[in-house]
Amino acid sequence: MNQNIKNRIEASDTSINSLLKGQKFYIDYFQREYRWGESHIKALVEDLTTTFLKAYTPGDDPEAVAGYDSYYLGPVVFSTNPETAKKSIIDGQQRITSITLLLIYLNNRQKAFSEEERVEISELIFSVKHRVKSFNMTDAEREPCLRALFEAGAYELSEHDDETIKNMVDRYDDIGDCFPDEVDEKAMPYFIDWFVENVVIVQINAFSDENAYTIFETMNDRGLNLTPTEMLKGFVLSKVADPEKRNEINEIWKGGMQQLHAVDKNADQSFFQAWFRGRYAMSIRPGKAGSKNQDFEQIGSRFHSWFRDQHVELFGLDSSADFYRFFKEEFPFFIKWYLIYKNASTHLTAGLEFIHYIHHWGIAVSLREPMVLAPIAYGDCDATVRAKMNRVAQYIETFTVRRSVNNKKFGQTAIKYTMFGVIKALRYCSVDELNTVLNEFAAEIPQKWDGVRWFKLNGMNRKFVKHLLCRISSHVDELVGKDTSYSNYFSPKGKPFEIEHLWANKFEDHQDEFEQIMDFHTWRHNIGALILLPNGTNQSFNSDHYVDKLGHYLKENTYAQTLHREYYQKNPNFLKSKSIKDLGFEPHDQLKKADIVQRNELVQRICEQIWA
Asked: What is the value of pTM for the model shown?
């Protein structure tokens, strides 16, 4: 091999279109897993769509997109074999995977568009050679998942799928959950054009693995730039005049950062963003072209400089004594409750259950966390803080579930102005005042519970449907005194639960009620025609007739058992509870359209009871 070629390193800024079109990338073995979480993908979608909507004006000529602001997505590093031209991803696999998932989502959204409105992006996802389709990001383990998402918008997970596949499916679902309504059918072609041409990536290409890994290590291990948290700390300590008190604050700060970093390496920045937005931000950028960033956005990008500019006006910190008191008392108080909130997010905690629920189905983290912290006042007792946090989380879940069962989205760009108004209204509320305010906001949610009657599973809402069925199943268990919880269904220690269709996918068995196969599928996916079963159980008889499966349901969760008449005979006390009697359970010896209607109405009553 020519030594000059081997030692060559090339770097250039490029667009997504140039990066992906007609390319094949191989994923290096040492970084094969895709590990992006919900917060990462939602932050990316939020940043991209916000940047686009800032520039886009309905009625723009298509050529105007070239003049829209660009968005920098960061560097990617490749190692290219000069002899075979095989290109391996050394750094940037997480971003390229996420870009591919977003492109697949955008391509699926376009399927309903006319040919004139559609933007051709499939060649950025896969290429065809000798009539064989292969994805540009080459990895045999990912191929079935990518193919299913591209062709059907959904992939059925199995117990054999690894962390990467599960994360890819979840992140694809997250994109659908958070993608804003403002990027509608008219705006979508403009957004796609902007995304593939105006999003900038720095492509670094080395022609030997050794050089590629050196670049990778340099980029990841030798960064010496101060973080916003470190710059904020420097400013705060400079304002505490007494050396002993300054050292005291420094030790408090270090202890707080250690606790936050034990949760996540970026938890310090998330904490300050949530605290400052929830308690102090007074303004947010208007949703019109050319508007400037306000408090909310400035905290998101440079909270250290925002605090420096606002510490007197919004925080009332004017003297050394003010800074000392605030960071000795209020700072650790809010770190404590932020850590409790983070723990309750991932672990179902008595008294903070709704925190856990909105971790799995709630608004964007950038709105959710400030809202939960907003009503907390320094000095509140533990019981008061817990009651406030759980009550706010209950409102968030009510808001998101009601919108979801009415097929309405709640991406940040669609709701941030409404939610910022809620955040400001919650500050300094007592528990009673908080209940009053949130009840008023809940009454103003335009989507009502009767949307449940027409709600159904589709390729874009599987994650929500599972969340809803987990909430329903655990609620009914609770009513009959079973020692089970939401976590037993959503994240059990044993086999995972999967969505079970009560009707097998056999149109021919239902032609007495349906002339068209599409009508049959619509009814089959109704929320009233779905339950949860453990993986394996679901797969073993999901193609059986309903009447043949009915006996099996007696061995499952209470919500499934209530389909069978025998359950009521063996449990005569079941209908004596007022809460259960109000729900109006009935057995279903067969499952016709009328039975599904009844079951839909039952789901509505359960939802109204859960989120009363």
From this structure: 0.81
